[in-house]
Structures are given as C-alpha cells and as structure tokens.
TrEMBL record:
InterPro entries: F-box-like_dom_sf, F-box_dom, Gal_Oxase/kelch_b-propeller, Kelch-typ_b-propeller
Superkingdom of this protein's organism: Eukaryota
Pfam families, alphabetized: F-box-like, Kelch_KLHDC2_KLHL20_DRC7
Region: Disordered, residue numbers: 1-22
Domain F-box: 23-69
Feature: compositional bias, Low complexity: 9-20
Gene3D superfamilies associated with the record: 1.20.1280.50, Kelch-type beta propeller (2.120.10.80)
Protein name, entry field: F-box domain-containing protein
UniProt KW keywords: Kelch repeat
C-alpha cells in the first residue's frame, strides 16, 4: 500500500511511447472503456498503470473511479451509508481516493461516552457476557450476567437513526423470553436476530435457538418479538462462552464454548436457516486441521475472505493468540491457521486475550478491543487485524491441510483519542452499517477494592461510541 501513497503525489510524466515505436492499442480506447478495465484492477496494478502517462494518471485520480473501487473493496452498503451520513452540500462528490487512503492507513480512533448514569433516562443495568447488535437502525441488548452471579433476561432497544453522538434513549422490551442467560451469542441475519445457547445462574447450559425481530413504528415506537426456532432433533451440545457469526444470508456458524462440567469444546457447527427463518437445520463441520478447544474467543466474517477466529481460553486454561480462517474451498468449508511473527508486534504488548471483541469495520478489517490475559489483567487497547495481507497467490497455492498460511504485518495498534473506555473484558461491541462507528457496552472492569471483593471487579453499564476518524473536504465522518 506504500506504493499507492507514493504514486498519489508523484509528478512523473513518463511518456506513453518509447522512441518512435507506435503507441500501444490501450491508448486508443475511449475513457469509458478504460474505466471499465480500471475498476477491475488490483490496487497495485492500478498504481502501476497511473505511472505510465499524464492522461492515465489523471484518469486513475478520478473520484468516480475510486468510489467504484471503494464499493468493490468495502461493499455497496458501507459506501451508501457513508454517503448519506455526511452532509454533502450541493451533491458535492466525496473525495473517495483520499478516503480510501485514510482507511488503508488508519492509525487512530476517537471515543465518546454516550451514557450518563446521573441522567433521568432509563438505562440498562451493568452487566457482562450479554449480547449487543445493530439491526434495523437500532441497538439491541439482551441478557448477560450481573453482580451476585445472577443472570438477566431483559431486552433493551435504542434507536440510532442519523444522530450518532447524543445520549441514547433506551426502551425496555418486556417479552419474558428467552429466559435469563449469559455467555450466549446473537448474530444479525438481514433484519433478524438469531440467538443461541448460554448459561443461567444455576450453571445450566442451553442449546436452544431463538429468532428476534425489531419493528419500528412511525412515531419511533419500538417492539421486539422473540420466537423459538424449530431445529428438529439435531442441535449442538449445550454450551456458553462460545463464538458465532453469520457467514451468508441464511447461515450461522458457532465454535467452541464451555459445556457441562466445565468442558471446553473445539467443535464447529453450521445452522442452515429456511428462507423465512421459521426453521433451521444444524450440522457439525468436521475438518482437519481445526482450531483447538476454547472459550471466550471471537468469530467474525469478512466478505470474500472468510470467517476469522481469534484468541480465547484453551483447555489448559491458557489464554490464546492464534488466528484461524474458515474458508470455502471447492464448495467445502475448511479451517486454515494463519501464522504470524510475534516479532512484528510492538515490544511489551501482549496479544493473547480472552473476553475481547472483534468487529468488522470499514475496509474489511477487524477492530479488536479489550479482553484480559492469563493473569486476568484487563486491557483497553485497540488493534486492527488485517488477514487480507495473506498474498492471494499463496492462499491459492498452499494446500489446505498444511500447517498454515504465513501473513506479515497483519497487526496494527491504534491510538485512542477522546473519552477512552476503561479497561474491560467480556463486554460487547457492534458496528453500524457504515463500519465507521462502533458501539461498546458493559463488561467487567477494575473496581475499587473492597473487603468483600476478592479481585476488585465490578460490572459496567456505560455505552461508548468509537469512530474511525476520516477527514474529507466536506465534513468529518
């Protein structure tokens, strides 16, 4: 990517022809024909093309071209939401080439506190190991564990809309179902929520699957209904502290977790949902190699790349830092370990963690936040994990049953500005549709050590907004 930024400011005017040789056929193409070709090129090839002559450099600097490239790289949803969220005066074109550069070079985020414990608004109580999702322009919060080892069964919804930095008005939804639990997972498929598993305050593990639907009325009244999904007789063994994500419009994958008697699972299960989400079918995915057993890890799907698994606590109670990729190969799902050099990580920084969050952000990378290490030291650091740094030719030529794929420089630590969240673990995070704004709620944080508190822990009930700082000619995203 360095060559891209050098080329952007280059003043080279290399001629399109050498000596008296006739010009190549490509220079005879019309601009719209060249545009059709350029929008398909990899970034490095596009930059090489820009170096050939003034005309081509001018064409490759077009924001119309870079908007199409951003759509290709980031997805149409993120681009459309980004355009609508910026006050574009007189339909002025956004500087897409500059935005692409800033996203690629992202080195900081800004943090804002969105909750006020002294306000008169109703607020969700402090909790950890809950679920937090962004769906239908709303934040949806369900369940979790709280002080005294008790579980919670409450559902809260807050409408976001286009107002991103005001104090949010939470509404409590009294549905009575699902029953109280913590350590469950909840993912978004379309306009629906799909919840699986969890643990109650009696230590009972669940393996039930629920579907939730948020409905907004014209006066911004919000309702949310849950229903038990019919999965027939086959389901994963009961568990909590597992990881889950959506891998397409009708498929969910879960991995690992803690089962009965504290056993940590290393299995992978796939849930295929019917078109109307009225029923589903579970099947176990058995592959070799596959990630070792663990709990408190994360699964995050990156479009066209695969599903990324990171961290967690292993069977020996050790905290892990390995990265795995669940990829489609010859129409089959297989796990591949992504190897990286710890020497590339800044000195004194410990990557192994459990109870962190890993959220897909603009640009197809993961934003890793918080968690705790093997000594239960909680963290407040932000990292970008970019598994796309695996060379495409290596990914294609390396056998899937080999030791793994080598990736260099895929970790980058970010600076956090503003009202930074305190150190925490087992919080939850989710991003809006643009991928520029991340919401963080709850978790276990360091508390004032009291005689009755062996570890000085407390549950948190604050909501934070974390933004990617992108400067444009028009406004700040």
């Amino acid at each position: 990517m360095t060559t891209f930024f050098m080329a952007e400011t280059s003043t080279s005017t290399t001629s399109s022809s050498i000596g008296s040789s006739p010009p190549p056929p490509i220079v005879k193409l019309a601009q719209d024909q060249l545009f059709t070709i350029l929008v398909l090129l990899p970034i490095d090839s596009l930059i090489s093309f820009a170096r050939t002559c003034k005309r081509f450099r001018s064409l490759t600097s077009s924001d119309t071209l870079w908007e199409s490239i951003c759509r290709r790289e980031w997805g149409s949803t993120s681009v459309d939401v980004l355009k609508s969220s910026i006050n574009s005066k007189n339909n002025q074109q956004l500087p897409w080439m500059r935005l692409y550069k800033q996203v690629s070079q992202l080195d900081s985020v800004s943090c804002h506190k969105l909750s006020d414990p002294d306000s008169e608004l109703m607020l969700p109580s402090p909790r950890a190991s809950h679920c937090l999702n962004f769906v239908s322009d709303c934040l949806v919060l369900f369940g979790g564990g709280c002080e005294g080892g008790r579980d919670l069964d409450d559902t809260w919804v807050a409408y976001i809309g286009n107002d991103f930095q005001r104090m949010l008005k939470w509404q409590k939804v009294n549905s009575g179902i699902p029953n109280g639990r913590f350590g469950h997972t909840c993912i978004v498929i379309g306009d629906y929520l799909v919840l699986f598993g969890g643990i109650n305050d009696r230590g009972m593990r669940h393996n039930d699957t629920w579907v939730g639907k948020v409905v907004l009325s014209e006066n911004l009244g919000i309702t949310l209904s849950w229903r038990l999904l019919d999965v027939r007789s086959i389901a994963p063994p009961p568990r909590g502290a597992h990881a889950a994500c959506c891998i397409d419009k009708s498929t969910m994958v879960i991995h690992g977790g803690i089962g009965l008697y504290g056993r940590r699972w290393g299995d992978t299960w796939i849930l295929e949902l019917s078109e109307n989400l009225c029923s589903g079918t579970w099947r176990e995915l058995v592959t070799h190699p596959s990630p070792p057993a663990r709990s408190g890890h994360t699964l995050t799907c990156i479009e066209r790349t695969g599903t990324v698994l990171f961290g967690g606590r292993g069977s020996g109670y050790d905290v892990l830092h390995d990265v795995w990729l669940l990829q489609v190969s010859e129409e089959h799902l297989k796990w591949i370990q992504i190897l990286y050099n710890l020497e590339d990580i800044p000195a004194g920084v410990a990557l192994p963690r459990v109870g962190h969050s890993a959220t897909l952000i603009l640009g197809g990378r993961l934003l890793i936040y918080g968690g705790e290490d093997s000594q239960r030291h909680r963290k407040d650091d932000f990292w970008v994990l970019d598994v796309r740094r695996i060379p495409s030719n290596e990914a294609q030529s390396t056998p899937l049953n080999s030791r793994g794929l080598q990736a260099n420089n895929m970790w980058k630590m970010l600076e956090a500005k503003g009202c930074k969240p305190s150190r925490r673990s087992f919080h939850r995070a989710c991003a809006d549709h643009s991928g520029c704004r991340l919401y963080i709620f709850g978790g276990m944080v360091d508390g004032l050590l009291q005689p009755a508190e062996a570890y000085g822990l407390r549950f948190d009930g604050e909501l934070f907004l974390v933004k990617l700082e992108l400067e444009t000619n028009i406004a700040r995203c």
